[in-house]
From TrEMBL:
It comes from the Bacteria. Residues 17-153 form the UspA domain. The lineage of its organism: Bacteria, Bacillati, Actinomycetota, Actinomycetes, Kitasatosporales. This is UspA domain-containing protein. It comes from Streptomyces sviceus (strain ATCC 29083 / DSM 924 / JCM 4929 / NBRC 13980 / NCIMB 11184 / NRRL 5439 / UC 5370). Belongs to the universal stress protein A family. It holds the Pfam family Usp. InterPro entries: Rossmann-like_a/b/a_fold (IPR014729), Universal_stress_UspA (IPR006015), UspA (IPR006016). Coiled coil: none annotated.
Amino acid sequence: MTEQHAHQFERGTDGPKVIVVGVDGSDSSLRAAAYAGGLARRQHALLAVVYVQPVIASGAALGAPVAETTDEIAEDLVAQIRLATEQNKGIFDVRWEFHTFRGDPYSGLTKAADELKADAVVVGASEQAGHRIVGSVAVRLVKAGRWPVTVVP
C-alpha cells in the first residue's frame, strides 16, 4: 500500500537550509553575523541577514527623522556585507540575503524567522545592562522555543 504525502515544510531534518541572523551594527551582532556566515557556509545554507528597523513613535512626534536614520543604518549594513563578501570571494563563499523588518527586535526577528522558514536563529548577546532584569531578545527567542537559537558573545 502506497501512501502519498503532500510536501510540507520540515524544520531541521537534513541540517539547516536557512539561518537567520539579527544585525543592528553593534559589535556583538557583527560577531553573530560572522559566526552565522561560517555556519551557513559549512552547511551550504542560505544566510538571511535581518535588520529590524525600530519604530520610535516619540522620536517621530518630536519631528526627528527616525525613518531616514534607520534606512541609513540598513544601507550601511548592506554595504559592509557586500564589502566582506567581495573581500572573501573564492575563500569564504556563502549565499546570503538582506531583509529589513520594522518593529521591536524580538517581534521583527520572530516574524523574519517565521516568514523565511528559518531552521536556526543566531543573535549577538545583549550589550545593555537592563536586559539582565527585563530579558534580552536572545532570552525571549530561546523561551519562544520555536527554533534552535545560538547566542554569540
